[in-house]
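Weekend entry, working from home. Most of the wet-lab plans are on hold until the incubator is repaired, so I used the time to fold the two sequences that have been sitting in the queue since the last round of cloning. Logging both here for the record. First:
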Amino acid sequence: MKSIAIDWEEREELAANALKPNAECRT
């Protein structure tokens, strides 16, 4: 359960991190 929760949070952070910098870099 803990592993899944961490993986889920990490995945969300990775997605947000990839989307945020990407949008900033693209603009």
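Second, folded right after the first finished:
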Amino acid sequence: MLRCSREGGSGPEDAFLFLLTNFNESARLWVRLQQQSSIRDRVKREKERQDLRVLVGSALVRMAQLEGMTVEFYRTQALPAILQQIMACKDTLAQQYLLDCVVQVFSDECHLQTLDLLLSQTANVQRGVALKPVLVNLLNRITSFLQGDPEALPKDISVFDIFRNFLESQVDAAILAYSGGSSGTPAEPPSGGCMDLSSLLAMQVAFLNFCLALFPSRVDYVAQILDSAHRLLSMTCQRASAAVTAASVAAGGSGGRSPPSLAKLRGSGIAELSASTVEGSYMASAAAVTDPSAVHLKPLPEAGMDALMDLLAAPLRVLSLQVLSIESYSPLLDFLDVSTRHQVASTMVSAVVTAGMPLSSAESLGRFLTLVSPLLRDEVLNGKRLEEETGEPEETEAAKRQLQQMAMLVHLARAPDTDDYFNLLLVAKSKFSEGGPSKLRVLLPPLVVSACRLLPSVLERQQQAEQRIEDVTMPAHGGKKICQFLHATCLELVQISAEMAFRMWLMAAMAADNACEMVGGYEAICHEFLSQALVCFEEEITESKRQFAALTEMVGCLSGFVRRLDRENYDSIASKLTQHGAKLLKKPDQCRAVLSCSHLYWNAPEYRDSRRVLECLQKCLKIADICVQASTSHVSLFIEILDKYVYYFDQNNPEVTVEFIQNLVALCAEHCRFAELDKEDDVMKNFRNTLQHLKRKKQAEGGSKYRGLDLSIDI
């Protein structure tokens, strides 16, 4: 080197050859030290090997820093010579370290121009060399580089095809190696350059992330990678399943493994939702797998399971539900065990709900719900339900949250066309029916809510079609069809959760009443829904506390939202509600229930009956008197009745006179004194507030009807 410098003939070639010679000698010495080291001087030899390792790496760094190290020089001279020296080492650790150094020290431009050469040489490495970390680092470097400078991607080089062809050759080699064995391992250890199953899956994950980062719109790239992974698992895991012992089969094939971590999957987000119709998906798994029963017996290692999880999560983050158009996506889920499939399904639902993107295609909704069906079914693992096997009860907070997110999918299922919208609800109900009662209790109510929301749009479309408005056609599913859907869904819910069904009947009745206002002809349907709510109340809700709550809800519905019911039907339902209120188990509940029922005869002008209001109030006074005789703690009932009298007096109910209020004020004062209530007691505060209200009314302009009140009461 010194002689060349003095002669002035030194160039990048000479400098490179000098560094290459230094690199070669250092690498050989490094390998010899490993092979010759004895136990006695191991510490000393390890220190020397570490020093030599740094020296070997430094030689490569110097090569990369040469001024004449152009892309062309690297491609034609430097890399072939370096790889020749690396392959000559015949040492697994040395080859892996040196290949990684090559990836790390030379520029990204150099790597892009020499991918073919570098990848082809990996077939010549020693058996046992871990290629995965080297090639994953290479992919990550190229990904980061091209993300920062997309124009740097050579037009004449297809990076995707180069890596795909390399991975396909690796998959073929792995399948060939596994095909000779029947014990779940290759007939022979993988040859040099042939990666094991877990490493291959990890490589495909890195390649998939590369494609998603640089070619996010190329769904076909993702499909090819997933197809390759499915081919690999179908051929290797099925043959490996023959090694599973009868004991493992009896145990469910899980081998005692705990599910892999879902940390990366839990970070999944949804970037965009495809509204296009997709063909093929979940059912393709039956045809794609030669022996479907064997997929649950595969001895997929823990690392392979984690890699498969990442392989499923990556496209979901970028492509959203476009992954359903990839035929091999759903079959890949079959290689996960029951517990893991359940967690994957939960993560996928969470990702879709978090994004809040609409599900506007019945086909894609159906396929997605099939994909996440483990959340609907009571899966069996090792002969037990999943909750029993994992030690987690079905009604844990996590299980409730999963069901709530499944229910939220219904609200994301919407379409501008009413027929398409209704078809979405039909698909959702069909899929939800696979679940048990504990699931349907949560999943059916959103269907009722969505159908009630859809009904006005359907009726409006019907009206526009009848008026022959341009481009508006009569809906295939009319308003009556929606009501039939509501009726069937609520009936199904009655057997599962009577209280929830009761509320859904009321919601359906309000929707039908609104429909009657829009187009007419729905009065009978509204009455049917209210009658079913009453039947549900009478036959299914038996606990007194819940009866009181249900009665209050129905009074609010009937008095506040129902306006188109026939007077006779309305009076019949109102009378039954009042009778049920007077028959509640506890007297205070009776009093308050009948007090609420008084609004049934006043709130709606169409059904106003001042006499029936007074009858309710007087009945309440009788019940309250019985309660106070039993315990003075019920004196608050008289104050509540007084408040209601004042309300109806303010509302100009002709049956409620100032004399009634005067007598009731005196009665309340007497009971308060008899009960010896503290002035700071809530009952006393409420009574004083009522008196203050009456005094303000009496003093206000136009308060002549209050002038007869004597409010000079000492309490």
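Plan for Monday: verify the second prediction. The CA atoms of residues 555 and 597 lie 6 Å apart.
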